[in-house]
## 1
Amino acid sequence: MALKINISEFSDFCFGVKRAISLAEGALKKSSGPVYSLGPLIHNQRVVNELSGKGLNVTRDYKNINKGTVVTRSHGIHPDTLAELGRKKVAVINATCPFVYNAQMIAKKLCAEEYKVVIVGDKGHPEVKSLNDFSGNKAFVISNKSDARKLTLKKGKIGVIAQTTQSQRNFSEVISELLNKDFAEIRVFNTICSDANMRQKSTDIFSRDNDVVFVVGGKNSANTKRLYEICKARGTQAHHIDSRSQIRNVWLKGKKRVGVVSGASTPRWIVDEVVEKIKQVRKEG
């Protein structure tokens, strides 16, 4: 049985991730002292391990850093942490994704203008935490329309932003639900990353044309999880994996069209490994 492997046009890093990695690698080459990242630079452990092998020290405790260079993670950093690092003799490279930075500035402005900030996103995600930090740690974080329905807001001004990797559909559903609330004013900012939006739209179409889809990316990657959910919602058999070793032979049995799509933090070389593994499994029978 002939096998056709389809690779999505989105099968490499997004701009924000490429930028963060480039900044970290540049710091490793130029810095005469130690180079740190505050938490994993991106949500792909293999890439983080590769950077660690080049000398990047991943730490969550910035208080003991007194020299060298600190590269912030792409998901953003608490403004107070940035200020404190600025007071030390430490070089700071802000690798926050530009889309996340834009959402942070909107959150900060809304907070300053006394809007109640509502963040549509995954509770506990580092990006959402950073957006809440810029909202004075007073934001309401909701994940879906069910959360929105339960949200109790006293009459006043509401400002709504989205985690940059949210799906457009979920964001729209939440906004529709919020419009039923009692408020004096609502301002909505669609802060969803254009790359994330395009990946999701492409995956929705892509998943229809394949018997099985491998969604490649970190298990803690929100944007990768979203792609997997889109495939499942379409009724397509899908598997979220972060390496070739997780592919099970039975998943390919009887399949003619196999799709491979990846999250924004997944490099092309990992996608290529997955494709080679698929070919190997089919060749072996």
## 2
Amino acid sequence: MVCIGMDDTRPGKGHNEEADKDKIIRGIREVQHALLNTPSGSHNLIIYSDIRVLRMMYPDYIMSLLDNNEIVLFLTYYDHPSTLKQILLNGQNKRANLIDIERYIQNGSLVIVDSLKSHFNSESHHQIINNGDKLNFLSLIRILLNHGIKSSRNGITIFSDMGSFFHRDPFHDHNHSNNSIDILDKIMEYERSIPTRYKELELKKFCVYHQNDYELHFKSTRQKAQLLDWHDRSIMVMDGAKKNDNDI
């Protein structure tokens, strides 16, 4: 497990701005190192305290996967798919350019979809992928797996922002009594639906949680421990000021 306290990486009173920036960069580099050392076929957990920190964590890693002839599926929630594409273009090392990103999208190496539409479209239960086609989520996974086999890819990595599980249908959900147990069941069902291996192709999964969702819906130490147990590895970039465990 990699655990970075945001109290050590965010600006504070009396701190030099350049020194604060250096602390943030050093923290992000620790996370990036952990990402680069994530083994194939693993099921991983990322908890982040600030969307700006998350945006700094993954661009270089995703580009390294694409450069390594892998497929990347990103189910985004707090960032629009178009925003995520721009974030990749603005990675810290400026490795990506628009031509590269568009090429990866066109050849099926990079697939970015709206997580909410992917899982909880109340009308069709379909998702819209890059070219506008609608596909069931598991059907998309099968298509990517078959595409990966036929095109001799080295693997598939899935980033799934889990925010959609906590905020779906806010105006149409009449059952406002949904509790953490219901959410745990839905998340477990989702995570079990994705294989870790298909023929000779391995899948690497990252389940991404905003700390506010994590703290609000996994309220007890037992529930948090259960979430950790579901995953092989955990990367936690946490703001200690937000923590509010209610032990059972």
## 3
Amino acid sequence: MSYIKPVFKYNHNLDKETFKNSKCLLTISVGQEVHEGDKFAATIDLVNNSFNSCVMLVDDSLQRHSMALDKKENADFFYESSILEGDLWLERNKKHYQNLNILQDIIRWDKWLRHPNYLEQQHKIKALIAEKPDYQTSFDKTIDEFLRRFYPRLLEKSNFDMKRAWNLCLDYLIEECTALCLWTELNCNFEIYPGKRNLAMHETHQRFVLPFYPEMLYAVSIKFKNRKQLKPQQFQSSVAAEEA
């Protein structure tokens, strides 16, 4: 069996030695293969050996939008299922993240939905989307790119509503970008994620975070060498329901 080797990738100019004295936010997209098994264990090792401290954020309730994409029900219908996905992920992967010696805290997505500044920050983002065409374009391009990957993977395409899916993706992104602006209270210098930060998140970081917090939340992605093609996002509770 070939060893899966994770490596950091980033666009900004910095010395990796900076990591040793910094705090990172490790974001977990529940349902993604990169946050399971050997890949997640390898990620834990890499983060453990690179940073001074870490907060882990489990993006569970955010996934209610993703869970609704190919269904008829709206995103809120899947709220409880998304929380269950977070519960299952935490239980399933405890054997890995308990080895993260620098772990300070584990946060779940509802922390941001219930944040006292959430609605105010969301309003600012929506207002800038309406005001600045180039900012709106960053959301449009992110959604178009995602749906170009998502649609071919659908087993049943005949009843798929592309406009509805597009709106669900927009809700997802606005929620994600709103939360990004609130992450500043965690005092994390870097966000660690196994994938490139999407354009909407990148533009939000540039416009809402860096002008006020110039040393916070820089994107550092993790790439895996010697790995096969990743599988699409999969939710365990949905699989169990289908098999029942």
